[in-house]
Amino acid sequence: MEQLSIRLAHAGDVDTLARNHRAMALETEGKALDPETTIRGTRAVIEDPSKGFYLVAERGGETVGQLLVTFEWSDWRDGTFWWIQSVHVAEEARRTGVYRALHDHVVGKARAEKDVCGVRLYVDKENHRAQKTYAALGMRPAHYDVFEIDFVLG
Known about the structure:
Blueprint: E1 4-8, H1 14-29, H2 35-47, E2 53-59, E3 62-74, E4 79-89, H3 98-112, E5 116-121, H4 128-136
Parallel strand pairs: 4-5
Antiparallel strand pairs: 1-2, 2-3, 3-4
Helix pairs in contact: 1-2
């Protein structure tokens, strides 16, 4: 198997990232996302680093995984949580260490930043495979449930 590399996403990745967002939303939540909206939203992150950053995992020059990191300020900790979001691993690359490499990269970068106090993510309550993966990587369920009012997707 070819070597896996992790890099920051750039403007040339927008279409691929957005396409993978749509595939992930359809697979995990049965939601068909609007292509133009996902392209605009993805481009917004690439153009404005204060929103977050994408990491891309490549093998043999092909994108096999990706995730988004966004930021949440914690006044309790006087620090920033990095949130892992929009995780996608190509179906043929699953169970080959792609997510682990992305995760380890995020945690390593987060630990190197003085103002980062932790890494969080949310996972669908029925996605037991992902929950096992996250637990195996040292993550544990938090004390919180997520509540929302979604003005776009309902």
